[in-house]
Input
Amino acid sequence: MNDKDYITKELELMKHECERDHLCPEEWVRRNAVKYHELHSKLEQEEKST
Output
């Protein structure tokens, strides 16, 4: 999956979760910051090892 597809997929997920949980995008980001920070760190480590 290329970066554009990944970002598009994540934005659609965010929109769905915001509507479902009645959140504004800023609140969604606050709630998911740790999750995405950990994911990003993991992806960076994988890229460095390859």
